[in-house]
Amino acid sequence: MKKLLVIGLLLSCTAFASDDGRYNHFPAKKSPTVEKALCNLTNYNLKLAEITQKQDMSAEDMVKIHELTYTLEGALNKLSEALAEAALNLEEVHLASEKLEQATIKKHAAIYTEITKALSKTSACISN
Questions:
Q1: Any bridge partners for residue 24, and if so which?
Q2: CA of 8: how far to CAs of 4, 17, 25, in Å?
Q3: Any alpha helices (H) in the chain, and if so which ranges?
Q4: Which tens digit of pLDDT belongs to each residue from 8-67?
Q5: Contacts 24+ apart (CB under 8 A), 22-29
Q6: Among 50, 32, 39, residue whose Cα is nearest residue 127
Q7: Predicted pLDDT of residue 41
Q8: Which has the closest alpha carbon to 59: 104, 95, 9?
Q9: What is the rounded CA–CA span in Å between residue 34 and residue 85?
């Protein structure tokens, strides 16, 4: 009975469409910056691991996993976007270095460095 109640709750949640047209049943923690995306990834990976390491997962656990994935997907999307932008800027640095274009190197290296600095710094995330 409890399992049916949880599944019913999951299925009856008010849904809203996301940017990609999928329906979200739970609100996600936003990842507006690389730093926040890394914190969300760190914190929500710990929560996911805690649940999935159980010998047996309950229906409530699976609902919680479903809820966690919205935040994890958002964090991964932000990081993917940041890595793509970093790669493009690094390629511009590479090409400009072949042509000895100092201004282009400086411009794109600054963007690349800013992105990768956020990816490589170890910061303390407040668990939420």
A1: 16
A2: 6, 20, 12
A3: 2-12, 34-52, 59-99, 102-120
A4: 444 444 344 444 555 556 788 999 999 999 999 999 999 999 999 999 999 999 999 999
A5: 24/70, 25/66, 25/67, 26/66, 26/67, 26/70, 27/70, 28/70, 28/71, 28/73, 28/74, 29/71, 29/74, 29/128
A6: 39
A7: 94
A8: 9
A9: 12
